[in-house]
Amino acid sequence: MSALLRVEKLEVVYGRAITAIQGITLEARKGEIVAVLGTNGAGKSTTLRAISGFLGLDDARVTEGAIHFKGKNLSNRPPYLITKLGIVLVPERDKVFPSLSVVENLSASVSGTGADRKRLEEMAFNFFPKLAELRGRTAGLLSGGERQMLALASAIVCGPELLLVDELSLGLAPVVVDDLAQRLVEIRNTLGITILLVEQNAAVALSIADRGYVLENGRVVLDGDAARLRNHPDIQEFYLGGAGERRSYRDVKQYRRSRRWYG
Amino acid sequence: MLKRSLIVTAALVGLTGAATAQDSYNIGLTGALTGPAAGTYAPAVDGLRIYIDKVNAAGGVNGKKINLILLDDSAQPARAAANATRLVTDDKVVLLLNASLSSTYAPVVGESQKANVPLIFASSVCPKDVYPPANALQFCTTAFAANYDSRAVLDFVKATAKEPVKLGLSAMAIPISRGEIDYAEELSKTLGMTPVSKQIIPPPTPDYTPFATLIKDAGANWTYSWAPWVTQVRTLEGLRRLGWTGDYVAWAHLEAENELARLKDGKFFVVGANSLFQDDLPIHNEIAAAAKAAKSQYPVNQMTEGWIAGMVIEAALKGAGWPANAEKVTASLSNLKVDLKGLRGGELQWTKDNHFRTKQYYRVYRWDEAKGAIVRVRDWAPFDVK
Amino acid sequence: MQLAINIAVLAAIYALIACGYVLIYRVSRVLNLAHGELMMLSAYLLLTTASLFSKNPLIAIAAAIFLSLCVGVLVYLFLMRRMTGEMVLAAVLTTVALGVLLRGLVVLVWSAQQQNPAQALGWVNYSIPVFGGRISAAGAALIITTALVYAGLFLFLRFSRYGIRMRAAGQNPLLAAQRGISLHAIYALAWGLSTLTGALAGILISLDSGLDSTMVLIGLKAFPAALVGGLDSLVGALIGSLIIAAAEVLMIYYVDALLSDVVPFLVLILMLVVRPWGLFGTREELDRV
Asked: What's residue B332's pLDDT?
């Protein structure tokens, strides 16, 4: 099957000088959950912003390569048109409109008209029954987990074919994260959409992903099936916090990791 | 549109001015032809232009055409200064005219004094320098006159009022209007009237009702306003809106004739020094015909001021002879008598000492509901200017 | 009683103008300093439509309002749209330039003379007795219109899809764009609505007290009202207008009329010192002003 999304040799430069990502190639096929792993500054978010069309806001631009979605080149399209094409981003921060109520958040986002809108809203509440209970509440008063639910719900009522999720687990309790991860799987299974999940928490990401990419210093350093990645010794060591004495301090890991991957 | 073509014409005339300098009288005007203040000056200037065109079409003065150069200053002092310099140095005018806000006076007067070119204020307020003892170079044809106007108005009020007058006063918060209303307040006391409320109204006031409420609540039975037309008429409208039924008297600005007909208020009197077109004199028909032929965009009944300025200029240039220079024109202006054919109460006379006019005449008009027309309430009342 | 009526009319004038500032500021953080000029333009448009539809005053008014709405949308599409993504300051300066342009244009086309749209429509501004005081017909219309406009805007922003989207876009344009909301459409809508309410204000004021180019200054005086209330709050604009109008009228009554001219700005300065984000404004937005 051909790729729904194909990022090819993408290079992004911030300002004039700082190259954030250098030649990233990745793809996502229809119905897949693809995990993109990496630490802070690895280029995960930049990749997402490049796909969703928001680079310009940060004074960044694509200097090399291309992004294809359903065979169309996405470069230079304004963000709302990219959303209209079917790519919807759930951002890392500021993911809901805090002064709007839950239901207003949904209706601001929902596409289509009349009955279609109703159906989409119903669907969102089906995936997240908790939100139905909270429908009148102001989004700014929601807990972190509820906010993430609302963000996901708002995103799927936009009718995406490709859902980009930036840090699903950030700042949330493990039990909440596991629940949200299961919802993602459910959403994928029900709607047949593709999900690109950018995560620091590799355990969660790889538990639901079909495939994964590992980014480091703006490059893809590892990729493959989720199962393979889960068992890869480096992933074990650096991301999944493998066993025994290898649970070292973070900066020691960073050092070792750099040594191994960059030689 | 028309005004634009007027400006374009002005520019063209300006360009050709130098070439024709030898065989025509060059005179130049700086005025508020555009901008927010233009409403008061542009119609008069258009009247002047039409008058001069008419004179030229009839062969000019002393066999020479008058080359009237019109420059726009948008009521901005800096532009007026530049205009005056240009008129004096490049166009070598023998006579300057100002038709703009008083803030433009200083630079234009300065230029006139420096070059010894006489300056006429036409349709702009007469400065102190034109009253006796007058500055040698400054003249004024404008109808309204500080202090004299209020004397005439209060004289009329005193003669008309049947009960003791409790006087409301309304001014715009600009120095000239405030000064006049302050003067009227003092004067009214000497005439046995009681000034009960004096409102100084800031220009950009969205609603005049609060001011009107104060005048009404003070128990005024007459109200007098000497201010730009907006303030005069909005104070009146505010009062009427509150159900005030007293008599209202105001200065007859350019707009007066149309506005009397619009407001149809039998107790609204306008006092003015120019006869209204309602009087239907031959001269009025002449102005109307000329304005129509010239396709002016302005109401013809707002052109009187410009027409009078034109008559004065024509007479002055005739007196100066040919070839004329600024000195001869000044001499001619300082000893001038112009028959205004009924546009004012009598002839306009300038002497060595008096560059305003030796006698100022006032008429009073109001709307007559029964006749459905403007009627004259009081005929020319003369006041000596000394 | 007359005092209360005078305050109410003035407050209605300010409030009707102020909501135009708020609408645009709220969605795009741009201060539209040409609002007064756009309002004046609408009143002048009424003069023209009044002569076109001299038999049908209501059609003339409707046509003028419709034209104003178009002007607002066109201003956005051809001018302000190019300013999105630029600094807010650039956009504000653009509106200043637009204002200067409109002022010149109005004088060129309609001349600087005092005009009376009410006369052009053949309407008389009757005086109506109410509660022991009096109010002009146009003044009453102003109060009613302001009430309807605010109620309408409230319902629109609360319940309609585009209203909710406007609020969303105003709060977080980035997220709004990510959710597929076309910011251009929202901004154009805001400009349209803003000029529409401005048009209502301009037309009603000109029907009440005539029209000349000083109307721009009235637009400017309504600005403190919007600011005192907090620039991104409609309720704030309403309350702010009441405060400013009351202060102004009370000043005329009891202190000095000349102060009334500066009192809106005095209240504004006081407010900026005590509570810079306004009565109902959002505090966090302050750094963006």
From this structure: 94
Check which CATH number belongs to the domain holding A27 and give it. 3.40.50.300
In a domain, A246, yes or no: no
Cross-chain Cβ contact B207/C221 below 8 Å: no
Please provide residue A131's backbone torsions phi and psi, each rounded to the nearest 5 degrees: -65, -35
Are there at least 3 beta-carbon pairs closer than 8 Å between C and B?
yes
- The overall average pLDDT reported for chain C is 87
Distance to chain C for B37, nearest Cα, Å: 7
Report residue A262's pLDDT band, with 50, 70 and 90 as the boundaries.
Answer: low
Residue recorded with tokens 């990510």: C178
Yes or no, beta carbons of B262 and C116 under 8 Å apart: yes
Residue A239 placed within a domain: no
Inter-chain CB proximity B241 and C9 less than 8 Å: no
Closest partner residue to B214 (CB to CB) among C9, C135, C252 is: C252
Q: Which domain holds residue A184?
A: 3-231
Nearest CA in chain A to C175: A95
Instruction: Give the model confidence (pLDDT) of A184-193 as tens digits.
Output: 999 999 999 9
Domain count, chain A: 1
Cβ-defined contacts of A140-144 (< 8 Å, 24+): A140/A96, A140/A98, A140/A99, A142/A96, A142/A102, A144/A171, A144/A172, A144/A176
> Hey, what amino acid is at B214?
L
Q: Which residue of C has its CA nearest to B232?
A: C209
Record: contact A100-C171, CB cut-off 8 A: yes
Q: How far is B316 from chain C (nearest CA, A)?
A: 31
CATH class of B148-272+362-384: alpha beta
* Position with higher pLDDT, B29 vs C211: B29
The whole-angstrom separation of Cα A214 and Cα C109 is 66
Domain range B2-144+280-360, its CATH number among 3.40.50.2300, 3.30.499.10, 3.20.20.70, 3.40.50.1370: 3.40.50.2300
Q: How confident is the model at residue B363 (pLDDT cuts 50, 70, 90)?
A: very high
Q: Residue A226 falls within a domain, yes or no?
A: yes
Is the Cβ–Cβ distance between C176 and C189 less than 8 Å? no
**DSSP alpha helix (H) spans, B25-76:** 38-57
Distance, C-alpha C55 to centroid of its chain: 29
Please tell me the distance in Å from C208's CA to the nearest CA on chain A. Answer: 39
Query: Which of C:94-113 have CB within 8 Å of B?
Result: 103-104, 107-109, 111-113
C175 has a chain A CB within 8 A of its CB = yes
C160 touches chain A (CB under 8 A): no
In order, the DSSP letters of chain A are --EEEEEEEEEEEETTTEEEEEEEEEEEETT-EEEEE--TTSSHHHHHHHHHT-GGGGTEEEEEEEEEETTEE-TT--HHHHHHHTEEEE-SSS-S-TTSBHHHHHHHH--S-HHHHHHHHHHHHHH-HHHHHTTTSBGGGS-HHHHHHHHHHHHHTT--SEEEEE-SSTT--HHHHHHHHHHHHHHHHHH--EEEEEES-HHHHHHH-SEEEEEETTEEEEEEEHHHHHH-HHHHHHTS--SGGG---HHHHHHHHHHHHH-
- Residue ranges per structural domain of chain B: 2-144+280-360, 148-272+362-384
Centroid of chain to Cα A166: 4
CA distances from B80 to A114, B83, B112 (A): 64, 5, 12
Query: Is C178 close to A98, i.e. CB distance below 8 A?
Result: no
Whether residue A91 and residue C174 make contact (CB cut-off 8 A), yes or no, is yes
Instruction: List all residues 6 or more positions away from B318 whose beta carbon is below 8 Å from its beta carbon.
Output: B61, B62, B332
C161 near A CB under 8 A: yes
Query: Is A243 among the domain residues?
Result: no
pLDDT at C145 over 90: yes
CB of C164 less than 8 A from some CB of A: yes
